[in-house]
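Researcher: I'd like a structural prediction for the single chain below. Treat it as a standalone chain; there are no partners to consider.
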Amino acid sequence: MLHTMRQVVRMVTAIRLAVWTRRNLLLEILALRHQLAVLTRSNRPFRPSDRLLWLVLRRIWPQWRSSLVLVQPATVERWHRDPGARRWWRRSRRPGRPSIDAQSRDLIGRLAEENCLWGAPRIHGELLKLGVVVSERTVSRYLRERPNRPSQTWRTFLANHLDQFNINLPGTATVRAGR
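Model: Treating it as a single chain, here is the predicted structure.
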């Protein structure tokens, strides 16, 4: 009985070792192929799906460190410790000034529309008088583009004012401004 039991234990151990070795081999192939796929991409940073794969491999495969080539094992450990840190990092580090509220934007637009000759400095001063604290640069950013009217050409100027000029053609050409 004891002899049979030992044989069963040895057989189960051998099967487990064979299955475990096959599993390790398949996981190593998966890890190496994944790293090759990352290297063949044009932009090489790890995507969230790549990080997830390494976190899963870390959980289910004890020898995951041996086939890791692209990043340090400490990096995968850090991904495991701080799963939400990467997600919030980009949101908390937006460059520049924070955007202003809709009321201030509408007020800037209304002041610019009602007073078409006012520029950003004047509107900024008026907003400060009203108690709205924004920078002049912010005001200029929210001003709508005014269409630039082309300036009058010489041909148009002369056509408009030709009747005001007295031109003496015989002899010398003299131009006198008339009233």
